[in-house]
Amino acid sequence: MWSKSRQFLEWVGTSALSEIKGNDRMKRTSLRYLLLRVCLVPILGLAVSGCFSIKNTDSATIEPDHQPSTTPLPASLTPTITATIVPTFTLTATQTLIPTSEAASSENMIQSLSSQCRLSCWGNIIPGKTSEFATKKFLSSIGELINGSVFFEYRNKRVVVDLTYKDGLVTSINLPPGITELYSVHYLFNEYGEPEEVGAEVIPETAEGTSWFSLILVYPQQGFFAIYSGEATFSQSFINICPTDTSPDLYLLESSRYTLAEMNIFVTRGWHKLKPLDALTEMDAHEFYESFRTTDNQCLLTTVPVP
């Protein structure tokens, strides 16, 4: 590189002297001008040659002489990048309709299902409105689902809630006496008013040698009826009906569909032959309502004699 620079300076000097000898005008140029030119040009040449080197290749290219160092920094000087991961949470909406595992929670389960909505709804299932698919999906979370009905343990007993379906909808729900303690005669009268019809049946003597009764309260506009059945008592040689000693069979149906005469299609015991209340007692349906609305601890005296 330095040999090329020296050749370049010699060439510049020779050129300058030639100009002085061959040109009359240059002879009249002041010595200061020539010295300035002679001094500046070599300096500029050295500056250019210090930054670039000219290489003889097939296609001459000008490349920087200085390349950045690739020597890695010491570990103590190496910058450390720390990524801070911010956790994200996905909120999943859950709806807990019932307790699921503890046997002691089964009573809370029944209370929860009964309090979620008014009859004829149970556990948010409404006959004539709720789909069969949604109903079975919900029931499968309660217990064992068999043919559309659900089986589960309640107070150390096996309980079954029966349902019927038609055209993809629930058509009826039967809640057995074991889980309907809430729905006493007194409670229904105060919560749902006077029933449209009241029916009764008395069996003076069953195959087991006992007397039996059934009392039915019909609420067709609200879509349910309740049957209270139990062993009858005796008073003054007549049979007594004491519905306060038992919880009902609850049948939940589509509203405004069934009358007392049609209720027997849902009662499968076979021996039910329901009659209007005043056919078996000296009290009509309205008097019965007014009496039991105020107090629940009483019985009805029938006109059926003790056998």
Provide a descriptive summary of the structure in words.
By secondary structure, this protein is α+β, with helices and mostly antiparallel strands. It has three domains: 2-52, no CATH class; 104-178, no CATH class; 180-305, no CATH class. The protein contains seven helices and 14 strands. The chain has helices spanning 2-22, 24-27, 31-51, 106-115, 132-139, 185-192, 285-294, and strands at 52-54, 62-64, 144-146, 149-154, 157-166, 169-175, 197-203, 212-219, 224-231, 233-235, 238-241, 249-252, 275-276, 300-305. The strands form three sheets. The chain has a nine-stranded antiparallel β-sheet. Strand 4 (149-154) and strand 5 form a beta hairpin. Helix 6 crosses helix 7. The chain starts with a helix and ends with a strand. Mean pLDDT is 73; it is low at 16-36, 38-66 and 83-104.
Number of continuous helical runs:
7
N- and C-termini, Cα separation = 139 Å
Number of E-state strands: 14
| Gyration radius, rounded | 53 Å
Q: Keywords, please?
A:
307 residues; 3 domains; nine-stranded antiparallel sheet; 27% helix; 24% strand
Topology:
Layout: H1 2-22, H2 24-27, H3 31-51, E1 52-54, E2 62-64, H4 106-115, H5 132-139, E3 144-146, E4 149-154, E5 157-166, E6 169-175, H6 185-192, E7 197-203, E8 212-219, E9 224-231, E10 233-235, E11 238-241, E12 249-252, E13 275-276, H7 285-294, E14 300-305
Antiparallel strand pairs: 1-2, 3-4, 4-5, 5-6, 6-12, 7-8, 7-13, 8-9, 9-12, 10-11, 11-14
Helix pairs in contact: 1-3, 6-7
